[in-house]
Amino acid sequence: MILGRERTRTRVGRAPTVSGFSRFRPSTSLLLISTLAGAYGLAGLRAPRPNNPGPQVLWSEADLVVLPVSVTDHKNNFVAGLTQDDFQVFENSQPQTISHFDHTDLPVTVGLVVDSSGSMGPNRAEVAEAAKDFLTSSNPRDEVFVVNFNERVSFGLPPLVPFTSDVAQLQEGVLSGPSAGMTALYDATDLALNHLTMGNNDKKALIIISDGGDNASHEKFQQLLASAQHNSAIIYTIGIVSEIETDVNPAVLKSLAAATGGKAFSPKSASDLPAICQQIAADLREQYMIAYVPSDMNHDGTYRKIRVAVHAPGHGGLVVRTREGYFAPSGATPVSNAQQGG
After folding, report:
1. How does strand 153-155 pair with strand 325-327?
2. Do residues 258 and 250 lie in contact, with contact meaning Cβ atoms separated by under 8 Å?
3. What is the CATH number of the domain that holds 131?
């Protein structure tokens, strides 16, 4: 997987994960799997490269890039009904050939990363209400978990419940633990990124509710940002910043969202949280899924910038949002049949 940490787990009775995220389900079609945000490549399958008269390439499992793309108009309304021909994808300014295209409401594995430090204590009730509104606005097959943090990081759900779709259980998870102490935002986000790999849905997202400050993490921000750029998850952030607090950093939240194709929200008050969570749920359900095999097949570990353009006559100026780029895998580069003498 291009945008995933290389952590492969094999489970008895289940298909192994591919680079920590994608599971090959034999009954699922290649088209459906390739449109899932986590399924950047599948072991044993060859990613098609249409309209390419050159030698066929034996692609590795890490060579299909899948992008969730949100398209809105100037009124911030989602734009539906676009076709593959309306989209262009560029990697390091070079046009890419779209292999797969879909606009389907796929289930998502979502982590709520909730700041429960002393400065956020007065907002806990509104956060719990927002969690309820997110879940009721989401795909019924979504699975959600909670990571609460102050200077300590903990899961909000009971020990034997890694994910839930139960509203009451989710609200209890958000409210668990005291509202006190310092802030370990980076450690909490890193834990949540890891826990996403255990989810059953290949499309994954985090929603971080915090003021962006951090004064207790072992993880450094640049390490966390690199992890997010290697990961397939979309990160949404909701920055609740108090004017009387000095240890805040909303720029951190904006950076994480921009790097992963999510969105950073800056509500005026905690009462805006439910509406924002409903908007995030709608964003996840309305995304277009685009897949391509990169024209640059060098496994050199470099960062590749991505740009997606939409040209849809009659829609006026459109706003397109996706992740800013990805790190290419490191290691042996795939060898074409021609190079092998075939």
Report:
1. unpaired
2. no
3. 3.40.50.410
- Residue carrying the six token digits 């088209």: 31
- Residues in a beta bridge with 23: 17
Q: Over the stretch 162-186, which tens digit does the pLDDT of each residue have?
A: 999 999 999 999 988 778 888 999 9
Q: What is the pLDDT of residues 285-294, one digit of tens each?
A: 999 999 999 9
Domain count, the chain: 2
> Which residue range(s) make up the domain with 92?
17-103+287-327
- Does residue 248 surpass a pLDDT of 80? no
Question: Could you report how far apart the first and last alpha carbons of the chain are, in Å?
Answer: 27
CA–CA separation, 113 and 288 (whole Å): 25
- Tokens 């034996």 locate to 58
| Local structure of 65: helix, strand or coil | strand
Examine the domain organization and report whether 50 and 95 are in the same domain: yes
Residues in Cβ contact with 84 at an 8 Å cutoff, skipping those fewer than 6 apart? 98, 101, 290
Q: Find how far residue 132's CA is from the centre of its chain.
A: 20
pLDDT tens digits along 220-243: 999 999 999 888 899 999 998 766
pLDDT value of position 233: 93
- Output the six-digit token pair for 75: 């009124």
- The DSSP element (H or E) to which 129 belongs, if any, is helix 124-137
**Is there a single domain that holds both residue 195 and residue 273?**
yes
Please report the DSSP string for 146-184 in residue order.
Answer: EEEESSSEEESS-TT-S-B--HHHHHHHHH-S-S-S---
